[in-house]
Amino acid sequence: MYADDTQVYGSCRPSDVTAFTTKVSEYVEATTSWMRSNRLQPHPEKMEVLWCATARFKHQLPNSALLIDGCSVSPVKSVCDLTMWTHIRRTVSQCFASLHQLHQIYHLVPTATLHVLVVSLVHSQLDYRNSVLVSLPAYLLLQLQSVLNAATHLAYNLRARNHMTDALISLHRLWAQNGYYTKWLF
């Protein structure tokens, strides 16, 4: 569990919504108090409340804002999905957008400059919060590996059929020389 991604789930009967709301509010207050005592900064402005019910009971759900930890939190119709699939999809999209922009100028800049741009614009995005990628399924890591492969193809002007292991190692060394270290699948 990460301090910025805490989720609380619970259930109650439609008639017990008020008592349940009080219980959740007390739990959130205790959690934020613990966070503050451990020098973590809670973000009450990012709190979301989602009420779920069958179509038959949906009309009984409260529409008014709840007071949780001193903040008014209005119920939402859907919450932000913070799964690793979402994180990886966003990272891959940002990296390929950077690669597309670099591809448009790669013939205008010296090779050494292109290598530095690839490392700073693509590798930095791949490495951001990569500790959460430990023990992920291979199909998710392969998407990130495809970005790394595309970055290597661009940086070393390789064709699709070229063997790229040496180029990957060379780019990885450049990455490590700049004070970064990451371990990928190559």
Describe the structure.
By secondary structure, the protein is mostly helical. It is built from five helices and two strands. The protein has two domains: about 15-75, no CATH class; about 85-175. A two-stranded antiparallel ribbon has the order 1-2. Helix 2 (about 85-105) packs antiparallel against helix 3, helix 2 (about 85-105) packs parallel to helix 4 (about 140-155) and helix 3 (about 110-125) runs antiparallel to helix 4. The longest helix is centred in the middle third of the chain and has 22 residues, at about 85-105.
Short description:
This protein has 186 residues and is mainly alpha-helical. 49% of the residues lie in helices and 3% in strands.
Supply database-style keywords.
186 residues; mainly alpha; 2 domains; two-stranded antiparallel sheet; 49% helix; 3% strand
Question: What's the helix and strand layout?
Answer:
Layout: H1 17-37, E1 66-68, E2 71-73, H2 84-105, H3 111-127, H4 138-155, H5 165-177
Antiparallel strand pairs: 1-2
The N- and C-terminal alpha carbons lie at a distance of 29 Å
Q: What fraction strand?
A: under 5%
The major β-sheet equals: 2 strands, antiparallel
Average of per-residue pLDDT values: 77
Number of domains: 2
- What is the number of helices? 5
**Which assembly state applies to the chains in this document?**
single chain
What letter string, H or E per element, gives the SSE order?
A: HEEHHHH
Strand order, sheet with most strands = 1-2
Low-confidence regions:
179-186
Shape: elongated
Radius of gyration using CA atoms only: 23 Å
Q: Which percent range fits the helix content?
A: 40-55%
Work out the number of β strands: 2
- Computed structural class: mainly alpha
